[in-house]
Amino acid sequence: MIKFDNNRFHLKNSFYSYVLEVSKGAHLLHRYWGKPLKEFRDSAPLQMLDRGFSGQLRAFENERTYSLDTLPQEYPAQGHTDFRIPAYRVELENGTNITELNYKAHRIFDGKPNLQGLPQSFGGGQTLEIELEDICNNFKVFLNYTVFEDTPILARSARFVNSGGKSIKIRNATSAAIDFNDNNFDIINLYGAHTAERTIHRHKIPRGIFEVSSTRGASSHQHSPFIALARPDATEFVGEVYAASLVYSGSFAAKVEAEQFGTTRFVIGLNPDTFTWKLEPGEEFQTPEVILNYSCAGLNGMSQGFQKFYQEHLIRSKFKNQVRPILVNNWEATYFDFNEEKIVALAECAKDLGLELVVLDDGWFGKRNDDNSSLGDWFVNKEKLPNEIKGLAEEVHKRGLKFGLWVEPEMVNEDSELFRAHPDWILHVPDYQPSFGRHQLILDLSRSEVRDYVLDAMRKVFSSAPIDYVKWDMNRHMTEAFSAGRPADRQMETQHRYMLGLYDIMEKLVTEFPDILFESCSGGGGRFDAGMLYYMPQIWTSDDSDAVCRLSIQSGTGLAFPVVTQGAHVSVVPNHQVGRMTTFQMRNFVAYAGTYGFELDITKFTEDEKAEVRDYVKLYKEIRSTIQFGKFTRLLTGDKDGNEYAWQFEDDGRLIVLYFKVLAKPAEPIRILKFADLNPDKVYTLKKYFPPKKMSFDGGKQVINFEEKSFYGDELMFEGISVEKIDTDFAAYLWCFEK
Ligand code: GLA
User: Fold this and answer.
1) Would you place residue 408 in the very low, low, confident or very high pLDDT band (cuts 50, 70, 90)?
2) CB of 544 closer than 6 A to ligand 1?
3) CB of 545 closer than 6 angstroms to any ligand 1 atom
4) Under a CB-based contact definition with an 8 Å cutoff, are residues 739 and 682 in contact?
5) Of these four, 184, 203, 521, 578, which has the most CB atoms within 10 Å of its CB?
6) Is the beta carbon of 493 within 6 A of some atom in ligand 1?
7) How far apart are the C-alpha atoms of 474 and 594, rounded to whole Å?
8) Mutation test residue for ligand 1: of 473, 520, 541, 595, the one with most atoms within 8 Å of CB
């Protein structure tokens, strides 16, 4: 619900109020964001003070208390009396970047405008569009705010229109800026590395400017396009959190400035270091969308807000509400060393174990027997697969299983037919040698002829065989992001044009192949963002498949993304990334918390192990709808020493709790687990209980005795359950209650 009254906009639903004000008929100010208010009557009016070195615009020269440098602004300019981080910077034809946006008009309407060519939220809502105009009529900016009734989410974006007669250059165009009137915050961001994505980092807001950003042409393993400002007393369960998640998969920047007078400015959007956009008269530029999330129920409240919103208003695939098939992927089983026989043997075994999907990973095309060659040559390697993909897929289907295939369409190797035919199709700068990453180069998707090739190649692959699932990979970051197809003054558009080109390709392919379940990947979770989820409903969370590492990676990913979007597989011990031995039960239960699968040579299981896998698979099938689509709550998040995690999943009929303890320790207190957010009046009956087995790396049958017991929800929340003490490292427990 959006109201305009007395120069104020009040955007409101049952989760929040967000208030804007037009000051002096010109300046758009931010006044409030937080718990819903019946009305905003300005109980804490802005106090105008004459602050040294905070200057005035000419029109207010004699009003020394009125300075843009101290006012809470909604989309602030640079270099025109406000010295804080700007929301945008536009360079005019005369080379200056002094502009001044004033409020001009607004529209309130039902629904949400389409953001041309970009991933975006959809489905209902009411939108406020505010038109700001440069006082010298060089351009306009339209700020968009969509309020959805049923969620704590506010979607924002900005659209630039060149309304003047000369070309302009947009040097910086954030999706949103917000001024908070205090700085009593902790910042929470997700940092990482390849094989160590989305580690939760919580720290006191520093004085100065803090930045989370990527210039890599991908949202990146290193910094997720997510940031939260939490009140210092906010926990997983209580307290205020303001969060932002960008619906974009390329370079981005989020900045937080705790400024001189105790206020905080926050901006998020495209990274200005890797972006410039030339706009000719009459042309428009649309920024990506940012999903703003207000929670007064702590970090779990924030996560649940994002998770529900993405499932209902962002992910489009027909699979989004379907339980996901349990897969086996041959990557860690065979790497490049496979042939049809080996994959069929995997399929035969997969069938016996109750798995549902066999995925053939990298190495099936061109002459690709290692990672030095053949990306770009999307025709089958007949030495490995004499009956082509079709023959293999049919063999898999014959066994009642689905078939999936890996592709990496955005890349090319120098040693490939494609590169030999089109050496200028890569991102590069004339005179400088292109840099390599994993021996590969990036195809310049900002050019239409390159996009056409990729589209055509993928259409051929996807229709060459009965393919049910595709893993879309991207295994290096952008360097030399320049294009042979673009004039000098538009070279800095290349990174963003690449992303628009990629989105265009994905849009076409997911539309043309609606029956393929797509999983996005970028060396694991290097492009785990809301932009990708618009096209592909699940993402391979990390190339690190070690169960202990995954506790932190999956907890961090769950901060901003739904459980069902996270690929999670059981792999072999010693683990291939960190060499660790973890128990089989821990590997299975950690992989339960996502789209469960296997990433090891399942044909090597002993008969005992196979029997055990069948049990794990059977149990997962019974409870996966609750895990994948139930309400997810972090009960323990590795607090202090990263030793203990507990995850709760609940739907109308069932409650599942997983508890993990990495290392056993002497003389520890008994762990009481208090469940969260249950219905106090409902009776929950314990139907299944799996305590850890003692250091069982390979499996082996275990007989579990337990008593079926029933409790009211209030007791499980306030008294909790005491965890049976079993001294073993890598302990994993599962409780399944029915209501
Ligand atoms: C990336 C992926 C892996 C695997 C390899 C294949 O690293 O994340 O899962 O597909 O590529 O080369």
Assistant:
1) very high
2) no
3) no
4) yes
5) 521
6) no
7) 21
8) 473
Ligand 1 and 540: CB distance under 6 A: yes
Q: Cβ(279)–Cβ(162) under 8 Å? A: yes
> Would you state the torsion angle of the CA atoms of residues 394, 400, 406, 407, taken in this order, to the nearest 10 degrees?
50
Mark whether 473 is an active-site residue.
yes
DSSP of 270-330: E-GGG--EEE-TT-EEEPPEEEEEEESBHHHHHHHHHHHHHHHHT---TTTTSPPPPEEES
Confidence of residue 697 (pLDDT cuts 50, 70, 90): low
pLDDT band of residue 9 (cuts 50, 70, 90) is: very high
**Whether the CB of 523 sits within 6 Å of ligand 1:** yes
- Dihedral of alpha carbons 135, 106, 156, 503, sign: negative
Q: Does position 474 have pLDDT exceeding 90, yes or no?
A: yes
CA–centroid distance, residue 21 to ligand 1 (Å)? 50
Nearest CA to ligand 1 atom 11: 523
Name the catalytic one among 473, 529, 544, 546: 473
Decide if pLDDT at 307 tops 90.
yes
513 close to 462: Cβ distance less than 8 angstroms: yes
Please determine, for residue 526, whether its predicted confidence score (pLDDT) is greater than 90: yes
Ligand 1 atom 12 nearest Cα: 362
| CB of 520 sitting under 6 A from ligand 1 | no
Q: Is 233 a catalytic residue?
A: no
In this predicted structure, what is the pLDDT of residue 696? 63
Instruction: Name the strand (E) or helix (H) holding 202.
Output: strand 199-204
State how far the Cα of 439 lies from the Cα of 417, in Å rounded to an integer.
15
pTM above 0.85, yes or no: yes
**pLDDT on residue 700:** 61
Distance CA 357, CA 330 (A): 11
pLDDT for 331 beyond 70: yes
- Closest Cα partner for 246 from 263, 265, 223, 230? 223
Ligand 1 closest atom vs CA 522 = 8
Across 422-446, b (16+ Cβ under 10 Å) vs e yields: beebbbbeeeeeeeeeebbbbbbbb
Which residue CA neighbors atom 2 of ligand 1 most closely?
523
